[in-house]
Specification:
With about 110 residues, the chain is of the alpha+beta class. Helices cover about 45% and strands about 25% of the residues. The protein starts with a helix and ends with a helix.
Length: about 110
């Protein structure tokens, strides 16, 4: 009876990888998701933060909502954008989506 129990434990512990092969597909899926989804999003967020930090008076911008205008005033958290002659809108900085090249508004 004891030799039978000893044989069962010896067979169970004969896995040389220690169960690592069962975890390998999960680790590979995590790595693929990281490089295809998370890493590009982090890079994009870093670029957008740099864009917001470089905003200055006179820059021509497009908001996330598609409004095009010229920055009149820059604060810590808000910018004032002139969207038409005499019409100014106060926006949060993260609402700025794109900085246009100088002179783009005249060509519209």
């Amino acid at each position: 009876m004891i030799s039978l129990a000893h044989a069962q434990t010896a067979a169970a512990s004969s896995d040389p990888t220690g169960g690592f092969m069962q975890l390998l597909p999960m680790i590979l899926m995590f790595a693929v998701l990281w490089f295809l989804m998370v890493r590009p999003q982090m890079k994009k967020a870093k670029e957008h933060k740099a864009l917001l930090g470089a905003l200055a008076k006179g820059d021509e911008v497009v908001t996330q909502g598609g409004i095009v205008g010229k920055i009149v005033k820059v604060g810590d958290n808000y910018v004032t954008v002139e969207i038409a002659e005499g019409t100014e809108v106060v926006l949060q900085k993260p609402a700025i989506g794109l900085v246009l090249p100088k002179g783009t508004l005249k060509s519209l």
